[in-house]
Amino acid sequence: MQSFALRPLWIGLNYAKLLSGCSCGCAHLDRHTQAYREYLLARGNAADYVRSCEAAVVRLSIWMKQANKRLNDLGEELLSEFLEHHLPGCQCAKSARHPSTVRAALGHLLVVLRACNVIAPKPLDLTAVGQELRRYDQYMDQVRGLAPKTREGALRLVEALNGCTHATKPRV
Fold first, then answer.
1. How confident is the model over 141-153, as pLDDT tens digits?
2. 81 Ramachandran zone, left/alpha/beta (phi>0; psi -120 to 50)
3. Which of 42, 46, 74, 169 is deepest in the core (most CB within 10 A)?
C-alpha cells in the first residue's frame, strides 16, 4: 500500500469516521476511507473539499450496498452508472450531488483503491490510439524524463484532442 502523509482535519464533520461506524454502506469500501482521506490531505486539498469528497464516497458506498454491488465491481463503468443513473435523482447532501465534484472525488477513490491493489488496474485501451498514447508516454518518460503528473496531463490533452475528432469512447 502506498503511504500518504497524514495531517489532522478537525474542522466539521468527519465523513470517514461516520462511514466506518455505520453499517449502511458497502463494508469493503468503508475499510479504505482512511487511506482515501490521507491521500486527499497529502495532496494539499482544503478541508471543505476533503469533506465534500468523503460525502461523495459515503453516498457511493450506500448506493453500492443498496444496489448489491461488490467492491471488486468498482471501476469506471460502475462509476458511470452511479453518476448517470443514480446521482441525478439523488436526495443526499448537496455537497455529494454536484456531478463534477462527485466525478473528481470518485476518480481519486479509484486511484487510492488501485494503489492499495483492492480493485483491478485501469484496463488498457487496446485500440491503435491507445497503443500510440502508451508509446508517447514511454517517450515522455524515458527520452524526455518528464514527471508522471506532467505526462498524465499531456496524455489527457492528447486524448481529449483525439476525442474531438474521433468520438470513440464514453468519458468518465
1. 899 888 887 888 8
2. alpha
3. 74
Q: Dig out the grid coordinates for 8 from the structure.
A: 489532522
Look up the pTM and report it.
0.67
26, HSE (Cβ side, Cα atoms, 13 Å) = 22
Burial code of 33-51, b = ≥16 C-beta within 10 A, e = fewer?
bebbbbbbbeeebeeebbb
**Helical spans, DSSP H, in 67-147:** 76-81, 99-115, 128-142
In DSSP notation, 24-77 reads SS-HHHHTTHHHHHHHHHHTT--HHHHHHHHHHHHHHHHHHHHTT--GGG-SHH
